[in-house]
Amino acid sequence: MQSISAAFRARPLTRAFTSRPVDGFVGAIGNTPLIRLHKLSEQTGCNIVAKSELQNPGGSVKDRAALGVIRDAENRGLLKPGGTVVEGTAGNTGIGLAHVCRARGYRCVIFMPNTQSQEKIDLLRMLGAEVHPVPAVAYENPANYNHQARNFAKSIPNAIWTDQFDNTANAEAHYRSTGPEIWEQTGGKVDAFICATGTGGTLAGIGRALKEKSDGKTQVWLADPPGSVLYSYISSGGKLTERSGGSITEGIGQGRITNNLGTFVKNIDGALHIPDEKSIAMLYDLLDTEGLYLGASSALNVVAAVELAKKLGPGKTIATILCDGAYRYQSRLFSKKWLQAKGLESAIPEHLKKYAVLD
């Protein structure tokens, strides 16, 4: 632990640049910093390190999946110049796809539940995407936004449905890039990795890479919010329970084992359940102590990393993911009224409530 900690402190004041210009937007995806969280590392006696995926050019970890699924379709001859990329998404995957499509000259069509904020719809349209808000219905309903996306892609030539949940090119992108980057940035000294999962691509891809590079020594854990069945699935040895409840976090939690998660689920070492109260308290603490302005899923991942560090004991290096920043959620996460409505204002320590500046 000492040598890694010293190495972090000895680094220069600025982040090093690559040795040459990168190739456009897609060339800027990846190679994100690995940030050592000082206060939490000192409290646990471990190195708590977080991959800062909000520093991808599109602002989130989903830039990698977006590029991965598009490149896979190109390589397989499913998507040709001037083609159309279609996805059903309510969040960062759509934003990543819109960016990559503009950079590579594709039409981008997004189907999303009409319960989503106007800000998300406006952002996607500003990025050049064609957005279809549709009624929010269960996945089993043929009118679900995912099924509408799939059917639309089938109805036009030279089009693909990227199918982020079950297209394993998603996990492959993290296996080939994010996992090896974490291994290199820790000098091959990563004792455990933990993060929450929605599609399953990030956890499965990184987990597989770290398991291979460490000869199975790196533990890989899943973090889960309320309203998801994955914690109970892992903890019970494979029993899917009925999904109930909900969480303030977006883009994570699941009611089934996706194809992406299925590529790795049998190799997961354990799972932790993280309540919203802990996530919101960590979100404010990271802003106050580290200057990091993060979304709720990122905060949940850090809570999980700290809890796992306590389980494994001092001297370990625990890695996680900072999925995105708070900019896309600030009207809620820093709103007194919203926090009160969710029963979360009391979860924030009194000295940190000064950051809830929105009425």
TrEMBL record:
GO process terms (BP): cysteine biosynthetic process from serine
PROSITE patterns linked to this entry: CYS_SYNTHASE
Its EC number(s): 2.5.1.47
A GO term, aspect molecular function: cysteine synthase activity
Residue span(s) of domain Tryptophan synthase beta chain-like PALP: 28-324
Record-linked InterPro entries: Cys_Synth/Cystath_Beta-Synth, P-phosphate_BS, TrpB-like_PALP, TrpB-like_PALP_sf
Main localization (coarse): mitochondrion
Keyword terms: Amino-acid biosynthesis, Cysteine biosynthesis, Mitochondrion, Pyridoxal phosphate, Transferase, Transit peptide
Cofactor(s) needed: pyridoxal 5'-phosphate
Catalyzed reactions per annotation: O-acetyl-L-serine + hydrogen sulfide = L-cysteine + acetate; O-succinyl-L-serine + hydrogen sulfide = L-cysteine + succinate
Subcellular location: Mitochondrion
Pathway field: Amino-acid biosynthesis; L-cysteine biosynthesis; L-cysteine from L-serine: step 2/2
Assigned GO CC terms: mitochondrion
Annotated NCBIfam families: PRK10717.1
Database matches in PANTHER family: CYSTATHIONINE BETA-SYNTHASE
Similarity section: Belongs to the cysteine synthase/cystathionine beta-synthase family.
Function: Catalyzes the conversion of O-succinyl-L-serine into cysteine, the last step in the cysteine biosynthesis pathway. Can also use O-acetyl-L-serine.
Name used for this protein in its record: Cysteine synthase 1
Organism of origin: Trametes cubensis
